Amino acid sequence: MVEPHTDSTILHIRSKDCTELTTGFNTHLQVTLAEAIERKIGHKFHLSLSSAEIPYVFYNVSAYLQSNKIRCEGGTEDLFLADGNYDIYDLVTAITAASFPFSMTYNENTMKVTLTNTGGGDRTIDFSAENSRELAKMLGFDRTPVQTVTDGASLVAEGVVNLRPVHSMYLHSDLAASNVFVTRETTDASIENILDKIPLGEVGATQIITYDPYESAPFSTVVDVDSIQDFQISLRDQNRRLIQL
User: Fold this and answer.
1) Phi and psi (nearest 5°) for 150?
2) In whole angstroms, what is the distance from residue 209 CA to residue 201 CA?
């Protein structure tokens, strides 16, 4: 007779108690338990995240996310921004003051920015370059290939400002999940070892992201193993990049 599925275990993980697997990232960790959690015969492992507390200390403009540059004039007059957390008014000030042949304004009604060529001559700008794509998207510009902007002319963003290059976080593991699927650009949906998705909500820089889905019956990931003792976890963004805390 198969025993009813009533057994449960809660595991508290603190990053400082784990082994860092990627240098400089405390979001990719090896967890080693003193004793294995064994799967009972006839049972399956269902894993879910009961709660998480994560400091919002990652930058929206950073070299790591490639969100701190815009390519201009073949690279000779590129925009470079210092890593940090910027709101749109910070960006207007920083971009206009930079050694970059464009000034920027922001329209609160349309939530769009305008770049104006102040360089004293025609300039080319490339929103499609690898090191321009992320910041261009954040400012609302389509990832358009090289375009020439005449002296004094302006470019109005096609879309609205969205300064969150990280808009959701995923808790990954190296445990063999069997019921979580994701889409890929070049393939159909495929299985991914994701334990849960952690929304950022309205939380901003320096605050604590608190995730507590326990009362709402969280989804559980089915893991195809007989025991759990040594495993990896990582906190990644929607593009599978490790979160840089």
Assistant:
1) -70, 160
2) 8
The rounded distance, in Å, linking the Cα atoms of 156 and 141 is 8
Average pLDDT over residues 165-189: 81
Cα gap 140→157, rounded to integer Å: 5
Query: Bridge-partner residues for 242, per DSSP?
Result: 236
Residues 34, 35, 38, CA angle at the centre, nearest 5°? 155
3-state secondary structure string across 187-224: CCCEECCEEEEEECCCCCCCCEEEECCHHHCCCCEEEC
The distance from CA 58 to its chain's CA centroid, rounded to whole angstroms, is 9
Question: What DSSP element (H or E) covers 15?
Answer: none
Tokens in use for 105? Answer: 């304004």
What pLDDT was estimated at residue 91? 98
pLDDT band at 215 (very low <50, low <70, confident <90, very high): low
**In this structure, what token pair is assigned to residue 188?**
């159909």
This prediction has a pTM of 0.85
